[in-house]
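Lecture notes, part 5. Sequence design as translation. It can be helpful to think of inverse folding as translation between two languages: the language of shapes and the language of residues. The source text, in structure tokens, appears below.
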């Protein structure tokens, strides 16, 4: 496989993941197509691993009536061996996340995602993912502080 193929597959995974979040069709096993079994996710609400990360994602989205997540600028850096096969990769992308509260008010976030991915027999999966809010507008959910306009440090996966 080429670096361009890996880039394309990882970009598609990001797009499908965001689309799944907004569709909210959280049937049992929905996350298997996106996350490794031991995935770790770090958000402003906290850090969770494995099945707890899936539940935390579902609960976070349940705070809202609707959401829309948009990704842009996905940059992937696969670790290719001498045979061109990649087993792991790092990726980052910008995101605009729009959350509609049940009272129809908005909470918007502009952020940066950082991820570590593992290539499985079924394709790329997120092993680690962290999101850092760069800016926010509107009323955040309970338990999340308003983000200052600028933050000097980059997100750290892990």
């Amino acid at each position: 496989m080429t670096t361009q193929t890996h880039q394309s597959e990882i970009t598609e995974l990001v797009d499908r993941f965001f689309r799944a979040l907004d569709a909210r069709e959280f049937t049992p096993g929905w996350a298997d197509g996106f996350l490794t079994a031991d995935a770790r996710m770090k958000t402003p609400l906290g850090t969770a691993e494995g099945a707890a990360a899936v539940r935390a994602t579902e609960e976070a989205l349940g705070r809202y009536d609707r959401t829309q997540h948009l990704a842009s600028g996905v940059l992937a850096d696969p670790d290719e061996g001498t045979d061109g096969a990649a087993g792991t990769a790092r990726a980052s992308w910008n995101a605009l996340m729009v959350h509609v509260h049940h009272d129809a008010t908005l909470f918007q976030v502009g952020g940066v995602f950082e991820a570590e991915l593992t290539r499985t027999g079924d394709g790329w999966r997120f092993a680690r993912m962290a999101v850092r809010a760069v800016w926010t507008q509107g009323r955040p959910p309970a338990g999340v502080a308003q983000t200052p306009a600028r933050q000097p440090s980059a997100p750290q996966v892990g």
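The translated text above is only one of many valid answers, since several sequences can fold into similar shapes. The chain is about 20% helix and 45% strand.
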